[in-house]
Automatic annotation (TrEMBL):
This is Beta-carotene ketolase (CrtW type). It comes from the Bacteria. It comes from Daejeonella lutea. Keywords: Membrane, Transmembrane, Transmembrane helix. Pfam families: FA_desaturase. The chain crosses the membrane at residues 6-27, 39-58, 70-88, 126-146, 152-173. InterPro entries: FA_desaturase_dom.
Amino acid sequence: MSALKSNIGVFAAFTIIGAWLVSIIFLMDMQLSFSNPMIYLMILVQMHLYTGLFITAHDAMHGTVSSNKLLNNVIGQLCTILYACFPFKKLYIKHHEHHAHVHTDNDPDYHQGSFIVWYFNFIREYISWWQIVLMAIIFNILKLWVAESNLLLFWVLPSLLSTLQLFYFGTWVPHHGEHDNEYQSRSQGKNHIVAFLSCYFFGYHYEHHDSPGTPWWRLWKLKEANK
């Protein structure tokens, strides 16, 4: 990885982490009124930032956040902790199994059921009981200083919605059904604004499998090259 690409990767990572942190601090103190459209907008913004945390961790799994392995992995672990107390190493192993055995019974991300069945199988594959317990403990500690309604609306709900966003654009759409390429994946149509807003260009999924060493912020260039 070039020094420039490494620096951009670190900058992109800390931009997302910083935006998430500033947003969550602001939202924890926000006065709630369900007639205020800003609440619903901020839920979506926070969902997108949660997705950004996971996409950053995903890039770290491919070693594309930083050429410094320690820094790369620290950023990856930080993002998975902020997202939902995931162990980075476990996600790293499972994600590389996905790339090695895509669309087979050995692919931890693959399931032959319907959208709902596949989604819950996907969640069960990655979330453990100790994570749920740990998140519940953190939630109850935060309740000492933050209103429960704010925690539910801006900490819990966006992270749950983010799992749907990641699953739909990063697993279901690219991998369900049959495909005529070696990566058993498809990409969404070329629209870079939609691709970024939907899942940080992760909908360009064939391009990701074809070049897993390309960070999320350069996937649009691969899409341009494949037009």
